[in-house]
Write a structure and sequence with these properties.
The chain is an alpha+beta fold. Helix content is about 30%, strand content about 25%. The chain has helices spanning about 15-25, 65-70, 100-115, 125-135, 170-180, 200-215, 265-270, 290-300, 380-395, 410-415, 440-460, 510-529, and strands at about 1-10, 35-45, 50-60, 75, 95, 120, 220, 225-230, 235-240, 245-250, 255, 275-280, 280-290, 315-320, 325-330, 335-340, 350, 360-370, 405, 430-435, 470-475, 480, 495-500.
Amino acid sequence: MIRVNNLHIPLSYNDDTLRKKLCRELKIKDSDIGTLSLFRRSVDARKKDNIYFLCSVDIELYSNENTALKKCKNAVKTEPYSYTVPEWKGTISPLVVGAGPAGLFAALILAQSGAKPILIERGKDVDSRTADVNEFWNGGRLNTSSNVQFGEGGAGTFSDGKLNTGTKDSRQRKVLNEFVSHGAPEEILYNAKPHIGTDKLKITVKNIREEIIALGGTVMFEAKLTDINQNGGKVTSVTVEKKGKNEIIETNSVILAIGHSARDTFEMLNSKKLPIEAKAFSVGARIEHLREEIDKSQYGKFAGSKALGAAYYKLNTRTADGRGAYTFCMCPGGKVVNASSEENMLCTNGMSEFARSEVNSNAALLVGVTPKDYDSTTPLGGMYFQRELERSAFMLGGGDYTAPVQTVKDFINGESSGRLGAVKPSIMPAYECADLNKILPKYVADNMKTAISDMGKKLKGFDNPDAVLTGLETRSSSPIRIIRDNKTLQSVALDGLYPCGEGAGYAGGIISAAVDGIKCAEAVIENNN
């Protein structure tokens, strides 16, 4: 198979366009082509009057492959991706804690290996969870076990379903292939900035769960890990709370994929003296613009093109005090959502459906914080720092999960005028104009203001006075790292415990978390065979 890179393709391309382009590049006839498929497609929007797709295409020829390779400097020999699931030879079913991306893919690989894993999740199945979230967003009660953070699919289920990643691990292709085979759009296999959308991601995670069960695995919802039992430094069983009763599940392997918001589990692990360290993370607020204006800034006259869809951006700057400020989890054509999971605390996230067709686009605007910025005498200092900010946001909004919002103009001027401009906040159940400067640490607020100005020079309209900030964004990543051995992936203090994914401090997004889940599953199989 040949991979042809650096193909400039018009936005209006079709299969015939690709075939003609490949024939010119490789100096072949159309009849020479066996099969072809997009491997990668990105948007080149550096020149607003000439936006096109930059593509890599995999092609199989009936003959003369070597001749074609010699004639095209952008063509390379390649092989189709393959992944072989290790065979399970153990005797005791491994247990996976958490049904987010890391836990789901760990359980999927274990099930495909023949291990018959047990997957426990403190929240509900995705359909019941969605009902609970919608009830909360429409003014109902917050279910602290079934919300944007907890339940089947993890926090990523109520996001944009972005699959961007910085990891170079080849397992990411396995993740994408599994998503597609379980219902995700095929375009995620080749788009440079792939996303599933929260609407399609819900279907996909349910299908993954059904395969785990079909292969002999067990999935338990509303089952919360309360203790890890050990003997001689090795895991022997876990204690799970289900419907108010404790149940002991015997196992010698526990993949701990608990996510970044399982704060009571962090406290349990700390009480057991498992090695945990505080780590850097980021805090800030969601910034929301009119989607139409962002599209125009990014795509010029091509804004509104169905081929391009809603425009994406990623911005960063280095401020005078040396901190990093950046946008994160950008949701084109999406909403800001109330992502609270604890009573009397408020935090936000962003969410888009696959169509990305909402009026606004939003992103987190974040500033880095380190253990030096909060009380790190305990490894849970960052978690307590997050809680303090979330309590402040809850009270600033009125103490009823109403979110505090503020225009960029008022934020920079340090006032709360109570007036909104062209951008209307999208968060539910309600919002209230307030001054976010009152609850953000001064160094965070100051750096956000500098970042807004700097980023406005990079992306026209980012510093629009009518843009809206919604507070607060506190859970960009886990505030802790559960220390594990780099080779075995087990806790350095407890054999059979595999800290995994974003909550354990080893991932940062859906793909990297899923990849880490696969790696931990492989380690469990190797250590049990």
